[in-house]
Protein: Pyridoxal phosphate homeostasis protein
Amino acid sequence: MTIAQRINQIRQHLPSHVRLIAVTKQVSPDIMRQAYQAGIRDFGENRLQEALSKQEHLQDLPDICWHFIGHLQTNKAKKVLDSFQWIHSVDSLSLLQRLEGYSVELSNPPQVCLQVKVLPDPNKYGWTIPELLQDLPRIEQCTQVKIQGLMTILPWGLDETETLKAFETTRDLAQELNERSQLQLRELSMGMSGDYHLAIKAGATMIRLGTILFGERLK
Ligand SMILES: *Cc1c(COP(=O)(O)O)cnc(C)c1O
Structure:
């Protein structure tokens, strides 16, 4: 199957409110161009240097929306702000506040999601639910940066029931935060190649797909 055929096959079954983000880490600019020609406009990258090099290769395609989805060190925050429209992986108060500081000067501040760990996972970044509730007053004060929703990545090895439940917990958390604060979280960035159908069932608005579109990565 060609990339275009895979993309079309997946898109056919997506509800219209779900935004498909093609995760292109380790995918070459030539393949990305094929995805673009098949209609993809949202690309997700998790490494800044790799992404910048691809942006240069693809600069003749002006309507791409770039999504940063990897862990972001605060010292690279400024650079990411300059070259991405979305940052899904805002995983700490200090990073959020750093982005907030830079956003004051921007005419087009970034749209961000807060990354949460709804289940314990020592290998992942992000707020736990209690941490997020505790930081809520300070998160709320960040009004320059556009806080649009929550993002989550689930731990390995959950069965379908556990997976669905964890996505539903994320959805319910967004609603709770909206009720308790001035935040208006509308986006749920959740679901990858193996679990996106369950994420959509739980209300995902953005799914991040890599393997199912482009095949296995090297590592
Ligand atoms: C790699 C990655 C994805 C895509 O994962 P697949 O299983 O290849 O679809 C989604 N989200 C994040 C944050 C990633 O790093």
Notes: Residues 160-180 form the longest helix (21 residues).
